């Protein structure tokens, strides 16, 4: 295909030209002053996007986002300790699995996929588990296209005196994440999401209560030891060889975010999410995530009965150059789910292309004649400039 494929999966996300050019720079000494300046700039930029308190440390790991999730568990949780993990999809389950792998006794607050975790349910669960110190939350559940009410959940956990650990991998930098104001103790993200960089670096912001808990935890840790990462970060370096090219990319991605302005970035993602869900619904798909909790970074929707998911995605990819993701999970409905990513360097026009291609593909699969109804439904959402409500 002579055109660039339209990468509309929920990460890795498309790379702007400026990021691609930044990445092609020659290699530098990862223990030299140039790298130290870059690490400092990245750490400050990621902290700002997470609205982290000044007292928080931002650690950068060479790993995918899951590495930073594992790091959080290894540094915070001791074998045999009881923890609460809220799960409403595949990535909440992953936090539970990692905790179990480190010997934790996991109490799950599990809700049906497509539904949010309810703050009242968390309050009740925590009341019956006073011995629990840590609560693990997924902000944006990428597998179901749902944004949990993080602020309210963190308030409940904070009122109960718990340490709040948040997977903000597919939300931070694309929607508001207020580490300080919402009382989050640890916030995690990954470079291949809203940061507009390739996969390879993971971020963890750790507040004072996170550090106190880490000092008490007894799980083994080496590559992901927060303490050595902090010691090295103070000198501008990482304990082991970092993914230097991805650091170049994140540095440039942060410049792009700051030029657009974070509030504008958030408003754009919200517009894209609303347009995408309205358009897909008009095209005949059923939004999967509960209304009021639909994500600004990824839309999941169920294909009409009789449409084969693989054939639909293949048609989109091969004929229209639009690459979207499949569903996750083992429930029968998962096989009929598709997910459209709209985080990072994605514009209103990019969503228009997806919706047009979706209608075309559905016509070719004998569902219904393409008549522009998806774009029509999306149109009012593509132009709004309204302020962004925080989840
Ligand atoms: C919410 C969430 N958590 C965790 C992960 C895992 O991140 P990674 O694939 O970078 O390890 C992802 C990736 O899609 C995610 O979206």
* C-alpha termini separation: 40 Å
Could you please say which CATH topology of the largest domain applies here? Aspartate Aminotransferase, domain 2
3D shape: globular
CATH H-level homologous superfamily name of the largest domain: Type I PLP-dependent aspartate aminotransferase-like (Major domain)
Label the CATH architecture of the largest domain. Answer: 3-Layer(aba) Sandwich
Domains (count): 2
Write out the strand line-up for the largest beta sheet, numbering strands in chain order: 2-10-9-8-5-3-4
Mean of the pLDDT scores?
96
Number of helices: 13
Task: Quote the beta fraction.
Answer: 15-25%
Could you give the count of β-strands? Answer: 14
Describe this entry's structure for a reader:
- There is one protein chain.
- Helix content is 42%, strand content 16%.
- It has 391 residues and is an alpha/beta fold.
- It folds into two domains: 6-10 and 262-383, Alpha-Beta Complex (Aspartate Aminotransferase, domain 1), CATH 3.90.1150; 17-259, Type I PLP-dependent aspartate aminotransferase-like (Major domain) (Aspartate Aminotransferase, domain 2).
- It has a seven-stranded mixed β-sheet, sandwiched between helices. A five-stranded mixed β-sheet has the order 1-13-14-12-11. A two-stranded antiparallel sheet has the order 6-7.
- The radius of gyration is 21 Å and the shape is globular.
- The relative contact order is 0.17.
- The chain binds pyridoxal-5'-phosphate (PLP).
- Pyridoxal-5'-phosphate binds next to helix 3.
């Amino acid at each position: 295909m002579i055109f660039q494929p339209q990468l509309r999966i929920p990460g890795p996300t498309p790379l702007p030209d400026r990021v691609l050019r930044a990445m092609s720079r020659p290699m530098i000494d990862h223990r030299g002053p140039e790298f130290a300046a870059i690490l400092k700039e990245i750490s400050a930029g990621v902290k700002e996007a997470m609205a982290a308190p000044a007292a928080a440390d931002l650690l950068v790991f060479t790993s995918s986002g899951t590495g930073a999730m594992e790091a959080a568990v290894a540094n915070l949780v001791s074998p045999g300790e009881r923890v609460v993990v809220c799960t409403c999809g595949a990535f909440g389950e992953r936090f539970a699995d990692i905790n179990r792998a480190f010997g934790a006794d996991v109490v799950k607050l599990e809700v049906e996929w497509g539904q949010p975790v309810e703050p009242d349910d968390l309050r009740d669960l925590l009341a019956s588990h006073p011995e629990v110190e840590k609560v693990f939350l997924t902000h944006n559940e990428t597998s179901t296209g749902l944004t949990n009410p993080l602020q309210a959940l963190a308030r409940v956990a904070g009122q109960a005196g718990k340490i709040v650990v948040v997977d903000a991998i597919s939300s931070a930098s694309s929607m508001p994440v207020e580490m300080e104001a919402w009382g989050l103790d640890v916030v995690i993200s990954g470079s291949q999401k809203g940061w507009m960089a390739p996969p390879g670096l993971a971020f963890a912001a750790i507040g004072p209560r996170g550090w106190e808990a880490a000092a008490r935890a007894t799980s083994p840790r080496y590559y992901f030891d927060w303490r050595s990462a902090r010691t090295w970060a103070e000198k501008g370096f990482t304990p082991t060889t970092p993914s230097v090219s991805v650091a170049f990319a994140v540095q440039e991605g942060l410049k792009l975010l700051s030029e657009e302005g974070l509030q504008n970035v958030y408003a754009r993602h919200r517009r894209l999410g609303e347009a995408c869900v309205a358009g897909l619904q008009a095209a005949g798909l059923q939004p999967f995530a509960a209304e009021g909790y639909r994500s600004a970074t990824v839309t999941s929707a169920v294909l009409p009965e009789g449409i084969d998911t693989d054939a639909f995605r293949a048609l989109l990819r091969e004929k229209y150059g639009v690459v979207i993701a499949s569903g996750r999970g083992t429930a029968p409905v998962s096989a009929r789910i598709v997910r459209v990513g709209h985080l990072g360097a994605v514009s209103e026009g990019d969503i228009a292309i997806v919706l047009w291609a979706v209608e075309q593909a559905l016509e070719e699969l004998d569902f219904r004649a393409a008549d522009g109804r998806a774009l029509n439904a999306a149109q009012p959402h593509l132009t709004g400039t309204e302020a962004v409500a925080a989840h």
